[in-house]
Amino acid sequence: MKPQDIEDLSFRIIDEEAGDHGFDEQKWSIVRRMIHTSADFDYIKSVRFHPEALQKGIDAIKNGCTIITDTNMARVGIRKKEISRFGGDVRCLIADENVARQAIEEKTTRALAAVDIALPFIENGIYVVGNAPTALLRLIEHVKAGKVMPALIVGLPVGFVNAAESKDALMELDIPFISNKGRKGGSNVAASIINALLIMADSSEKPK
């Protein structure tokens, strides 16, 4: 089977096993891709969308926004064709020398320092957290302080320490977000959300 045939069959299997999930077409395209990436149907119950999340994310992509990720794994997993088509880019600063220097000087994590250094790129952009709760919590601090306003935050840090709590804090903000309840998440799942948005943005530009 060709790769596209495998993906199409996988989506049909997911549709059949999910049954009556209750999502509209756009939200289901995101949740289905999350399931496709993780083979985890729990996302049907745990995923959360801010009411403006999808439209804000799609508009930002079509306006050529910068997408910042907390890990290189998420950056590599995001489709590049659609990003370049709209004039945007995707960056991860975790390995940046300035990030490493600031983390050492301030005795903090690289993930947290990367958020600070990424501030000039985050305004009206998309920040993707798939691994580090510290990154999400730092970003929330900056949003609350009025230092930055992303078009969309995708928050899916994974783990046992502050992962669920950081997502709960995100969902208390009145800012476009896509997240989930609980400990599950990961860079691959976070990247899958962006890919679904990129496909929607690209499809909306093509002639019917």
TrEMBL record:
Keyword set includes Transferase: no
Query: Pathway membership of this protein?
Result: Cofactor biosynthesis; adenosylcobalamin biosynthesis
Q: Which GO terms describe its molecular function?
A: precorrin-8X methylmutase activity
Alphabetized UniProt keyword annotations: Cobalamin biosynthesis, Isomerase
- Which Pfam families does this entry report, sorted A to Z? CbiC
- Record carries keyword Isomerase: yes
What class does this enzyme belong to in the EC scheme? isomerase
Q: What is its EC number?
A: 5.4.99.61
Gene Ontology biological process terms from the UniProt entry? cobalamin biosynthetic process
The Cobalamin biosynthesis precorrin-8X methylmutase CobH/CbiC domain covers 5-199
Superkingdom of this entry's organism? Answer: Bacteria
Q: Write out the similarity annotation.
A: Belongs to the CobH/CbiC family.
Protein name (record): Cobalt-precorrin-8X methylmutase
**Annotated organism of origin:** Desulfamplus magnetovallimortis
Q: What is the lineage of its organism?
A: Bacteria, Pseudomonadati, Thermodesulfobacteriota, Desulfobacteria, Desulfobacterales
Q: Which gene encodes it?
A: cbiC
